[in-house]
Amino acid sequence: MKILITGGAGYIGSQVVLDLCRRGDEPVVLDNLSTGHQEAVARACVSGGRLIRGDVADRPLVERILGEEEIEAVIHLAADSLVGESTENPGKYFRNNISGGLVLLDAMVAAGVTKIIFSSTAAVYGEPSTVPIPEDHPLQPANPYGFSKLTFEGILTAYERAYGMSFISLRYFNAAGADPEGKIGEDHRPETHLIPLLLQTALGLRERLRLFGTDYPTPDGTCIRDYIHVADLSQAHLLALDALNRDAASTVYNLGNGNGYSNRQVIEAVQQVTGVDIPVEEAPRRPGDPTVLVASSAKIRAELGWRPRFPRLEEIIATAWEWHRRYPHGYREERNCSGEREIK
Ligand SMILES: NC(=O)c1ccc[n+]([C@@H]2O[C@H](COP(=O)([O-])OP(=O)(O)OC[C@H]3O[C@@H](n4cnc5c(N)ncnc54)[C@H](O)[C@@H]3O)[C@@H](O)[C@H]2O)c1
């Protein structure tokens, strides 16, 4: 099957590209490389699959790709996704995540492509009132990033009614880990995610980890999150694609493991996996960080038969550690003036 993957040069998108190629589908990646890496696509698609450098908001380009490549479905991962930045610069998030996505949808309608899988987020829920969080939990995003994703979910529903678009929105919790075969992994710049930050600290690339908030109403005072292996996340996209091909109804699924780990528990687990004592600096809470985010993924388990292969935190960290050890500077090794390597 020929599938357009927007954001396929990013962390999660490149894993989806890899898994599609592995099962014989033909992904075509559209990515502006604002945070993604050309090298990630090259490693993910040794056989078939290719990268077109461009923006989802470029309607003539998107229409040309959909038509000339005979695209049958779209997986839409392209977005800006830094919660803090979205609070400081909301317009950037509304332009890219809402307006950009709308251009993509309109091009799909014009080209007669009616199947889309959308990367949504746990941030649509805001501070939860019940945990684990089911899909029908109230939706009250606490930041413009979450709001942009929730708005796009609403747009998908309207496009289903108006134009017969079928969609599956996948609300990811915290993606982590790396391809178990070690080809691709996480290389965000700037890095804001806890596990890669800890691993970079373990490698000596950062002096210490800043731990934001130690006075939350949790057993050890730190936030609790649900970590899902990127390969398990990727498999859910393949199942969702198969469901849309069976004409399954449009819907929304949470994706997490259903286990919550506090930030201190994650630090402890990283120390165990790496054998390195990690210096930690305690810092105040960041605004907009919910206390606990843990998914109920009962719906996707029951309806699509999704099962995580790597549910244990230690396994997730171990695959990420392999990747970080092999590629400590990610896809691009850069050197500063004195010839020393540095992280940008
Ligand atoms: N990483 C997580 O834990 C997490 C959790 C919840 C939701 N998500 C969502 O999953 C998706 C992928 O996240 P990720 O961690 O892989 O991020 P990423 O930054 O690694 O990937 C995003 C990709 O989209 C590309 N992109 C951005 N805007 C674009 C545009 N206008 N046109 C073309 N390409 C564009 C970037 O260059 C990048 O390759 C995002 O939509 C994100 O909001 C991620």
What does this structure look like?
There is one protein chain. With 344 residues, the protein is α/β, with parallel strands linked by helices. The protein has 2 domains: 2-176 and 228-255, NAD(P)-binding Rossmann-like Domain (Rossmann fold); 194-225 and 258-337, Alpha-Beta Complex (UDP-galactose 4-epimerase, domain 1), CATH 3.90.25.10. Helices cover 39% and strands 18% of the residues. The strands form 5 sheets. Strands 3-2-1-4-5-6-11 form a 7-stranded parallel β-sheet, sandwiched between helices. α3 runs parallel beside α5 and α9 crosses α11 (313-326). The longest helix is centred in the first third of the chain and has 22 residues, at 90-111. It starts with a strand and ends with a strand. Nicotinamide-adenine-dinucleotide binds at residues 6-7, 9-13, 30-36, 55-57, 77-79, 81, 96, 100, 119, 121, 172, 174-175, 188.
H and E string: EHEHEHEHHEHEEHEEEHEEHEEHHEE
Q: Note the gap between the termini.
A: 37 Å
Number of domain units = 2
Radius of gyration: 19 Å
Task: Give the overall shape.
Answer: globular
Number of strands: 16
Bound molecules: nicotinamide-adenine-dinucleotide
| CATH structural fold name of the largest domain | Rossmann fold
Strand content: 15-25%
**Within the largest sheet, what's the order of strands?**
3-2-1-4-5-6-11
Mean pLDDT: 94
